[in-house]
């Protein structure tokens, strides 16, 4: 099968979050299964060019239709650790991808609208006809719209689209200018509630909604988060749209790269170990203490790795620091604050705890240090307010670092409480889960984890090994995506529902 992934990230060349890891990991696994996979991404000035091999010009003069003219665009080709990628580089005064960062500009909706248009134009003029185009998040939500409304009439009528939503919070709200820029033009048609009109802003076009309406299959990145998106507020207003299109909506759990995350071979850790021999983990704990100037005492290390923002439960992360110290444990944090208020708060804590021999806060991100923390820590907390999938807890399990997680999204699908889980036998349980979003709930789970380490060390080691035996690689997710691809490639693309304008008093529903 020939598959083209269109996304705004592909790790490790372009990585702002978990999206990049997913695009790379899934592409690599599909290649290993014998499928032809190509990835189309923007050519940012801030890419890790050292992670791209044999970068060369693939198509020098691509003229992308844009408003009443065209934008001269070049397309480069290179290999990111064995995955073939095409990089879109527009030559325009708009300077779409030379901003020094991936996201965060007021015209992001227009930047990625152009990228989506350019990706389709590149496929068209180079006569690339993939069986499946796999798009990711709002940045590529217009790809299925333009494919159905424009490019199928130009010779791309057999291409099918799988659309994966990694985060419902960011949906790409835009105005009518994206219609005129892409030459979709027909405002009355696309401002229908059954097409792109935002469910709650009658003057806005919702790019993610367009992806849902026009794609052949839609999924989010865990089964439980798919349920949450349908029946709770984590879909941020798209629940009604998902209800209408429920027959093509599912949840497929992400995986992690078991070559990158492997305690038996990891080049970033000083001592290797396995589920059959955990002795190297205690040596890594000692190495972690030496690197971070923590004192050597017989107590567990509790860790947090990830962004410091509201999604990740930043208030509970803060609470966990002091609770762990009170309960005779050490605490290590590695994360980048998002927003000035959160940054100020944690820099204050870093200065306050600077001389505490049981605590280290690293307010940055360091890949090598992350590997060492996973290998050296005993417990890792993931107290997210919402979590579509979560990779941290799966990496923790891989390294024998017991996860303590809040019962949301993909965390529910991957961590099963040692004491209270009713769906798995005791020998299949692998961590601790709490549900309420408050300090007592976190404490109830974290206390059980710390207490098991102190008072029942053999049981703790048994729990570590049970977690390490789980397979959260890309093997099973790739099988599920291939099943989706096979299903949609043999079906005619369903047109969007006919427009049904609301009455003057009608209010759109979730």
Report on the architecture of this protein.
The chain has helices at residues 18-32, 108-125, 142-149, 177-182, 187-190, 207-214, 223-231, 239-244, 279-292, 314-326, 340-352, 367-376, 392-398, 409-414, 439-455, 457-468, 475-489, and strands at residues 2-6, 36-42, 53-66, 69-80, 83-90, 132-136, 160-165, 173-174, 205-206, 217-220, 249-251, 301-305, 330-334, 359-362, 379-382, 402-406, 432-434. It has two domains: 2-255 and 479-489, Rossmann fold; 279-468, Rossmann fold (3-Layer(aba) Sandwich). Mean pLDDT is 95; it is low at 499-510. It is an alpha/beta fold and 510 residues long. The protein is globular. Helix 2 crosses helix 3 (142-149), helix 3 packs across helix 6 (207-214) and helix 15 crosses helix 16. The strands form three sheets. Strands 3-4-5-2-1-6-7-10-11 form a nine-stranded mixed sheet.
Q: Would you kindly provide a brief summary of this structure?
A:
The chain is an alpha/beta fold.
Outline the fold blueprint.
Blueprint: E1 2-6, H1 18-32, E2 36-42, E3 53-66, E4 69-80, E5 83-90, H2 108-125, E6 132-136, H3 142-149, E7 160-165, E8 173-174, H4 177-182, H5 187-190, E9 205-206, H6 207-214, E10 217-220, H7 223-231, H8 239-244, E11 249-251, H9 279-292, E12 301-305, H10 314-326, E13 330-334, H11 340-352, E14 359-362, H12 367-376, E15 379-382, H13 392-398, E16 402-406, H14 409-414, E17 432-434, H15 439-455, H16 457-468, H17 475-489
Parallel strand pairs: 1-2, 1-6, 2-5, 6-7, 7-10, 10-11, 12-13, 12-15, 13-14, 15-16, 16-17
Antiparallel strand pairs: 3-4, 4-5, 8-9
Helix pairs in contact: 2-3, 3-6, 9-12, 10-15, 15-16
């Amino acid at each position: 099968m020939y598959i083209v992934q269109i996304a705004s990230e592909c790790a490790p060349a372009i990585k702002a979050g978990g999206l990049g890891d997913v695009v790379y990991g899934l592409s690599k696994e599909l290649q290993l299964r014998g499928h032809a996979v190509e990835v189309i991404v923007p050519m940012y000035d801030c890419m890790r060019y050292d992670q791209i091999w044999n970068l060369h010009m693939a198509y020098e003069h691509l003229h992308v239709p844009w408003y009443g003219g065209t934008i001269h665009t070049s397309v480069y080709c290179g290999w990111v650790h064995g995955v073939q990628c095409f990089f879109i580089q527009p030559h325009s005064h708009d300077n779409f991808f030379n901003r020094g960062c991936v996201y965060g500009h007021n015209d992001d909706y227009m930047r990625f609208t152009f990228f989506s248009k350019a990706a389709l134009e590149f496929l068209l003029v180079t006569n690339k006809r993939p069986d499946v185009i796999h798009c990711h998040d709002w940045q590529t939500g217009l790809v299925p719209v333009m494919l159905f409304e424009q490019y199928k009439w130009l010779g791309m009528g057999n291409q099918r689209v799988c659309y994966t939503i990694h985060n419902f919070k960011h949906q790409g709200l835009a105005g009518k200018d994206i219609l005129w820029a892409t030459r979709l033009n027909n405002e009355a048609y696309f401002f229908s509630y059954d097409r792109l009109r935002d469910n709650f802003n009658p003057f806005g076009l919702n790019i993610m909604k367009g992806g849902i309406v026009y794609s052949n299959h839609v999924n989010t990145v865990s089964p439980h988060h798919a349920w949450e998106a349908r029946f709770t507020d984590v879909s941020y207003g798209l629940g009604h749209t998902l209800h209408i299109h429920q027959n093509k909506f599912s949840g497929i759990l992400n995986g992690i790269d078991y070559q990158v995350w492997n305690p038996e071979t990891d080049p970033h850790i000083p001592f290797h170990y396995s589920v059959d021999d955990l002795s190297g983990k205690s040596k890594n704990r000692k190495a972690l203490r030496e690197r971070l100037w923590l004192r050597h005492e017989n107590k567990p290390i509790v860790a947090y790795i990830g962004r410091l923002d509201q999604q990740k439960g930043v208030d509970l992360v803060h609470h966990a620091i002091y609770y762990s110290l009170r309960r005779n444990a050490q605490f290590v944090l590695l994360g980048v604050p998002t927003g000035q208020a959160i940054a100020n708060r944690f820099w204050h804590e870093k200065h306050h705890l600077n001389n505490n021999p049981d605590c280290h806060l690293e307010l940055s991100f360091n890949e090598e240090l992350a590997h060492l923390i996973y290998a050296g820590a005993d417990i890792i907390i993931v107290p997210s307010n919402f979590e579509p999938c979560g990779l941290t807890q799966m990496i923790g399990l891989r390294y024998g670092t017991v996860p303590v997680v809040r019962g949301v999204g993909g965390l529910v699908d991957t961590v099963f409480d040692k004491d209270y889980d009713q769906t798995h036998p005791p020998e299949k349980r692998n961590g601790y889960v709490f549900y309420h979003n408050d300090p007592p709930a976190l404490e109830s789970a974290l206390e059980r984890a710390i207490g098991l380490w102190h008072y029942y060390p053999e049981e703790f080691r048994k729990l570590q090994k049970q977690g390490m035996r789980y397979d959260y690689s890309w093997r099973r997710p790739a099988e599920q995506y291939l099943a989706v691809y096979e299903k949609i490639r043999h079906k005619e693309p369903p047109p969007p529902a006919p427009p049904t304008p609301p009455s003057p008093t009608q209010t759109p529903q979730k």
